[in-house]
Amino acid sequence: MPWSVGGLRLGRDWVAAPDPATLRARWTALTGAEGPERERLFRPSRTRTPAAGAAALPGQRTAATARFSEAPGPFPDPVRVLRAPFDEQWLLPDQRLIDAARPELWRVLDAQQLFVTDTPEPLVTAHLPAGRLGRIRPLHRRPGGAEPNLAPGLLPLLGARHGGWVTPEDVLCWILAAGRPGPRGHEVPLAADPERWRAGLELGHRLLTVQLRGARGGEPPRLPAGRRPYVRAAVTAWPRELRHDPQTAELFLGDGVVSPVPAAAWEYEVQGARVLESWFAARNAHRDPAARGLEALGPAEWPQAWTSELTALVTTLALLADLAPERAAFAPGPSLTADALAAAGVLPPPHWARRPASVLDHHEEGPGGQFALL
Residue 160, exposed/middle/buried by CB under 10 A (0-12, 13-18, 19+)? Predict the structure, then answer.
């Protein structure tokens, strides 16, 4: 996947939140303030200040482009993003508020797109990654899945070797099954044996289905009957802690209880942190005594929807933990050599494949309502 883009750099945490209502409250507070108070709430950086203009993000028609200090415009419709591993939140898609929004990613964001993040184990999401998740690799270089972000010639080569049509999503499934961290980054051996290739695709497809969590119109993954987590006791007061009892397989969310929750889901880590604990901490961030300004605005009561999100997240982590031994034991078998890939013209990828494709088929509104000249 030659084309990669650095992660979004928000510059201010208040532009993202676990629920859209919080973003509306923050926007209302910011636009209702004036002068020095608005400046303080905005939290200016070297890149973004209330007096600086910015272009509209591609595909986001509710975003204004006038200087925020002069005309904030209407509340921009929040978009779903991946804020942290397996943590889907919401973002204000207004480039005036984001230090580095990566417009080239927004141009290829659509219902066919998938993004791969450069975490130690690749994460795949249908939402735009907007956290500290490393470099971002879109599966497609153009909207509509028109051009794969793969080394030119790779798909025909794999199709000829393995006796069938190979799609970009097939390669993505293979990456999930066979890729491993290595001294040069994430290394992906390409199977030379058709049987191992098909086995890897089958495993990778299951991994991809779990990671996508029902996105793109798919069915959310479910655990077998008897293992599905349910809310056994509702949350009646804001939970101060999240804890797990391995003996009873219960997850305590304050006075709420979710079970069964296997120990493997509770212990599931990415980047050295437990996913469930990180998810809970993100929803308590506005109640931290150190939170200030707009970041201190959030729900006064625990939203019931968050408990539902928690049970879905437990399901995802439990299923991934179930697949972990099979993935660890998977052997890709004999691999295509670098010489074979070079002889087929796959390696090295051409310089143009490492850059974004030209996808502008309409004018994009620049700062102050002017058309951007590109």
Answer: exposed
Cα within 13 Å of Cα(324), Cβ side:
13
Which two three-digit tokens encode residue 131? 């956290």
Grouping H, G, I as helix, E, B as strand and the rest as coil, residue 342 is: helix
- The three-class DSSP label of residue 5 is strand
Give which of 193, 320, 225, 311 is closest to 267, Cα–Cα: 320
- The C-alpha R_g of the chain, in whole angstroms, comes to 22
Q: How many whole angstroms separate alpha carbon 191 and alpha carbon 226?
A: 38
pLDDT in tens, 3-55: 999 999 999 999 999 999 999 999 999 999 999 999 999 999 999 999 998 99
Q: Do residues 193 and 334 make contact, with C-beta atoms less than 8 angstroms apart?
A: yes
Q: Among candidates 57, 58, 129, which has minimal Cα distance to 94? A: 57
Q: Is the pTM of this model over 0.85?
A: yes
260 cis-preceded (ω within 30 degrees of 0): yes
Q: Are 313 and 181 in contact (CB under 8 A)?
A: no
